[in-house]
Fold each of these.
Amino acid sequence: MVLMAIASGTFGGLLIYIIQPQDRMIASVFCWISLAILVAAFWDLKFRTSKRRQQFTREMRSIYDRYCDSEQAFGFDDHKWTHETKAGKYEASWSALTTAAERPNVIHWSTKDHSIVLPKRVIGAMPRSDSGARDEKSALAQLHGLALGPLNNGSSFQLGIIDYLLTEIPSLWRRHPFLMAEAHLVGVLWVLMIANGMYNSVGPGVVFGWIIASVLLFLTITGQLWYFTTKYFTAPPDSKRWQSGFSDRGVRTSNAEIELFSAWTTFRKFKETSRAFLLHIGPTNYHIYPKRCLSSDRQTTLRNLLKASVAADN
């Protein structure tokens, strides 16, 4: 919508500049249309952003009220863990975990119907299932191993700009083929309208008009490239460099900021492209694992594991 507003405003401005004074009132309609589209685009963006923020706040508040705003009890052994809050007592085996993560100050995990956030400062004070106490370091190491599991035979991944662009741009076209085609068609039509007006015109504004038409055509064709390039370079560095290990249980990932475990049940599907394996956690969200970071044998092993554990996106 923003590009359409810019194109409409530019076209209207050029018409006002090159046509006769008595016709400029009609030509100014394009400028008003441009302003209306621009206002609508920013209002829609602000509205949707505010709505998503409010929904996220409500969800986080609901989770806090349910699990964290009162005294809690937690215990674990090598086979299961228990969590007791005012909502009741929950018990599950470690194999039932769907996600787990360790951050600098907390470790948290979840099953399909329960989640827990455990501050590391309280881990050393927890009782053992048998008699005796345990120190914080050994308790944290044990809990770390049970919740996240070992990073055995992990591979180092680094997401380069070429891998990112050649994954994101085709994925965008696959998800929204008609919308992308329509947006490009509209941009090209606006450029043709401007070019047609310049073709039979003379004067100092003609050169400027051709420059504007060329710039709009360039932006129409390459807009997605600049968007994803900006997105790549503004992303945190740790999100582009990590280690991952794959097992029958799920995916174990580690970088400088977080250690994460995701069971296979958390992934909706996987897709293999010429450059990467994509593990989808939602309709538009996925993890990218570049193939160039894996040997041929590891690619084959991972491909077979994914086929056995996650639905393929054909």
Note: Residues 1-69 form one domain.
Amino acid sequence: MIPFSQYAKVKNKFCACYLGPFKQHLIRLVAVRPFIGKELPGIEIHIGCRDDLFYLVQNEERIIKESEIPKLKKKFGYFRDLRYDANSDPIECFLMESELQKSLEHLSSL
């Protein structure tokens, strides 16, 4: 359990982390982030990615390289690792689990 003073600093910070090999999942996660933000006002959304795929999103705000995650993980109230499996899209599953319907609709249009 973290001290309340620390909780107050991290409670509105969220990191969705995709460390898989597929570029399109990372690109889609970045593209849908503004819509997630609209559905979750007040939440600061960061995205974690593999160091070797950072070049794809380096001009975006609030992107964290995989190598930086261990030292930054405690700065988030919620950290979600989005994992790929052959049967489902990790971004779509995350949006469905989080009941972010408008973001899910936008993702479908990408």
Note: The radius of gyration is 14 Å.
Amino acid sequence: MRAGTVPTAPLATNREPSRYYTMAKLFVSTVNASAVATARESIEVGLNDDGVAVVKVAFARGKGTGAQEIPVADLPAFIDALSGYADNGINKSAKALSPVDMLHATICTTEEDRVSFRIGTGKGAKPTNLAPEEMGGVVAFLREVLPTVQAAAKKIK
């Protein structure tokens, strides 16, 4: 056999081969299908774990991509929102979300019944997870330390 080739069948020898070789794609994530073609191929409708009718659809394939699951009841509003971006474009020079906007965009209750939210963005930004009953205490603490934090910030300016 020539160097660099991989047989797709057992090696031809006088004894029973102990290994089989198979071909493997070298460029697994080089899919050039359009987003519409990928969506058309992947779209599914079903019930999620909570019994809610959802549509699941992928718009891209490969590492770092995933199917989106949208409740069917929310699909018209989702389409309208996405249409607005398609028609009007996306502001490339938009500033990062403020901490308040980031809180609004990310706060949720997890499957483990924890409150989760993220303030920071970028690589390595991790969400905070709290028990719901701790929220009042956290708010009270932050209000308590706010004057001290503001005073300290003035000193370092």
Note: The radius of gyration is 26 Å.
